[in-house]
Amino acid sequence: MLTAVAILIDGLGFAAWLFLSSVGLTLIYGVMRILNIAHGGFYALGAYSSAWAIGLYMQTGSSVAFTYLLIPLMAIVVGLVAGLIIERGILRFMYGRDEVLMVLVTYAIFLILEDATKLIWGTESLVAYQPAYYLGNIEIFGIPYTVYKFALIGLAVLCGAVLWWGLNRTTTGKLLLVVIEDREVSSALGINVTLFFSATFVIGTTLGALGGAVTAPQISVVPGIGAEVIVMAFAVIVIGGMGSIGGAIIGAIFVGFARAVSVHLYPPAELFSIYLVMAAVLAIKPYGLFSLAQGRKI
């Protein structure tokens, strides 16, 4: 019984983190058809900027309450500034190019962002435990869990609901769906496709930075965390179907519970279990669970 409860809660917590860390990646691919390897770099920038800002703020001796506003604020700053610079300065010149070339370009950007974090914050680890620590713990069947973990689950649900509402219940979201369906027809109808691309990339990078920012209070922020998360995020969106928000939710749940089961029942298989799930899904659905129909190429 206790093991089942632990698997349920840990699976939900890990799934929430995976969704927050990967939904921006699938959003950018769905609209722009860019597999943004640089997403891991934005995650790292969000984690570093959040940990750095929290550290500076706590040195003032002020209340920890403001740090919960500081976390999303730093993610928004990173997403807006770095996202706009990269999209306007580099990617807009690459639109319409081969997808493999775009992967190489975003991989180069990822390497640049990795070095940028080292130049700005150095190679020493940053620790910003205060937001998670001061929320305290809660016991469920005698097992202690941080309240912060449940806050992240709630945040993931909120982000998923807002994205669904924005895409399906707003005029802008419906126009975006038209852009996704056919860029050329959208331009002919007078829709500013370039503006939608820029907005989508900034929202996607902000979500990636938010994933890192909310993770910072739970970990020691060190160089290389971006490389780790891009692999996990890629597994999530491949399982769910690249470009599908709903698929990202299901993919995160699959991966989250696969990891939780392996951690509690057979820890050596933790990483293997994630890729086993991905391989099993792709063997049945080569384009993911919720992918759109693929046109046959001759």
Q: How are the strands of the biggest sheet laid out side by side?
A: 1-4
> Approximately what portion of the residues adopt beta-strand conformation?
under 5%
Give the mean pLDDT: 89
Return residue spans where pLDDT drops below 50 for at least 5 consecutive residues.
none
Radius of gyration: 19 Å
| Overall 3D shape | globular
- How widely separated are the two ends? 54 Å
SSE string = HHHHEHEEHHHHEHHH
Q: How many helices does DSSP assign?
A: 12
Describe the biggest sheet?
2 strands, antiparallel
Organism: Cocleimonas flava
Protein name: Amino acid/amide ABC transporter membrane protein 1 (HAAT family)
Membrane topology: Multi-pass membrane protein
Pfam families: BPD_transp_2 (PF02653)
List the helices and strands and how they pair.
Layout: H1 2-32, H2 39-58, H3 67-89, H4 99-121, E1 126-127, H5 130-133, E2 137-140, E3 143-146, H6 147-168, H7 171-181, H8 183-188, H9 193-215, E4 220-221, H10 225-240, H11 245-265, H12 270-284
Antiparallel strand pairs: 1-4, 2-3
Helix pairs in contact: 1-6, 1-9, 1-10, 1-11, 2-3, 2-4, 2-9, 2-10, 3-9, 6-7, 10-11, 10-12, 11-12
